[in-house]
Amino acid sequence: MSGLNNFSSAHNDRLAEAVSVLEEFRREIFLEKTDSSSGVFQWTPPVFPENPSKSIKEPSLPTDYTVIGVDGSNIDVNRHIPVDCFLINTGTARLRYGDVPEAHLSSDPQLFVPPDQTVLSDPDNPHKFLQIQGTILGAVRSVKEMETLAAALKNSKPDTVEDIPFVGLIDGTLLLLDLLRPGIPDFVIDAVLVEGFIRALDDIKLAAQEKKIVVASYISLPGSDEIIDGIRLLVCPYEKSDCLYHCGEIRKGARPCDSAAEGLLDRDLMSVTVKDGERSELFSSNFHMAKNYYGDNEITFFYLNTGYEMARVEMPSWASAKRKDVDLVHSVVMEQCRKGRGYPTALMEAHEQAVISTADRRYFLNLVEEVLENNGIEFTTSQKDRSKRLRWL
Amino acid sequence: MVDMNTPSNEYPLRIGEVIESDTNEFTTQCYELYGAPALGSLVKAGEVNSVYGVVSYSHTSGLDPTRRPVARGEGLASEELVYDQNPQLNRLLTTNFRTTIVGYEVSSQITTYLPPRPPRIHSFVTQCDNSEISTFAKSLDFISSILAANLPQSDDVVAAFIRHACQALPEETELRAESARRLALLLGNDTRRLEGILRRIPND
Do A106 and B5 touch (CB under 8 A)? Predict the structure, then answer.
């Protein structure tokens, strides 16, 4: 137990130092250090606002507004069955508040079957392809969610003469960094990120020119440490923060920047600076890989103290360009969290629409088996899968 | 696309659809939350050869049995505001009601005993008109089966039916007295029970 006590004490000391660095933040120094360390600093700090320790009060909530939440779930490819198919189910909850309250809940399950729907092919070389499963399927699901949100926002007509605002919410990050890992072929990035996710965001941006639309994503218990990366830069004692040159040989935990950063997450830091119901200033993500693709949709984010947890809210830069739109997202998400007892109601209901239960999964498998057998294809399965299903004593 | 939302009701007389059915009773899921007819009302299920029933029980709960409603109104001025501020509740809660089967229609004639088969699942359920209420109010054959069913609320269901019938058919001036005579015959020496039912049917 003494080990845990030591850990907590060191954690608190590091947090106190990080808070003090944030409170004494000076933008010109940060920009200077960013410039001088470009290309050699091994962390990825975001673009900091003028006053990153500021806590912004909860703005007033409009009387009439609509929240559209979208979430998804999937049944991944099962290698124990004779067909490499998968299923994506997107759930939508459209909740209107104000003079004419109403709710619309729906789900849209889509089955993807071989040969064309379950692989991504290189348009320049049809022999190069990648099976959609695992992480890539997760990214494809994010695309379906964003496309569903885009369609719901575009198709929503204001019911009154007054143009009421629409807030589109999605669960999880807007940054599909999994797609930008080394080894993912360019044609996959093009098909999923550029032609899928970014195009859907562009569609929403286009719709936002005609209607009052903002879009944001909500991350519960965020694990990001981008702001902490900025703290590392700020406390770095060297004029040029060349991590490998100065600290390449030093063990983790003993580097100079570790005293204000090691083991800390952004939410730890923000929990000290952002008060109940309030938000932080807006930061801009600075992942170089993403910058090449996201363009106008590059990700800005703020931390929101919902009173239940420190959440991260992301918005594409075009959506957060006007302060009143960030205020709208802040007030609406806060109210959603109050209604949902800690998590936005629209996302909770979208999740309920999207979720695929164990019974549904079993039914899906039976249905695939039935269709294949009706078409004369024997439904073979592995002995491993069979033993898992039968579970005899 | 699976849509959870009830389209606008173009058939206002329809209350809902049969979701469970057996020889003695059927259960209806209402199209509208809290849309169940009053206890003791006469309803019918099916577009042809309708099956008639008297509402004997109603129940409102979450559509998904694994999701329990939670208190939401703390700090709100009225109950209505709970629904206004949580519009999804109208989609996630549902009202069902059970009816005791009391007769059926065959060749455009209403008979006041059990049909050969209960109504089909998804049969439309509608409120009955005064002529149908009159048929059952005059026969009262079904009262014995409701009393015999021994539901905790049997006496209230019978009293409520007679009360509704008296209100719907003011021209039938003898209806209350005739019902009382019929109940006296059925209940025999159980005067306490008879008195209890009659107390629930005011004179005016």
Answer: yes
